Amino acid sequence: MGSVAVSMKISAESAEVDLNKVKDEIAKRVKVQDFKLEPIAFGLKCLKILVIVPDEKGENISEEIKRIKGVGDVEVESATLV
Question: Could you say which architecture CATH assigns to the domain 3-81?
Answer without folding.
Answer: 2-Layer Sandwich (3.30)
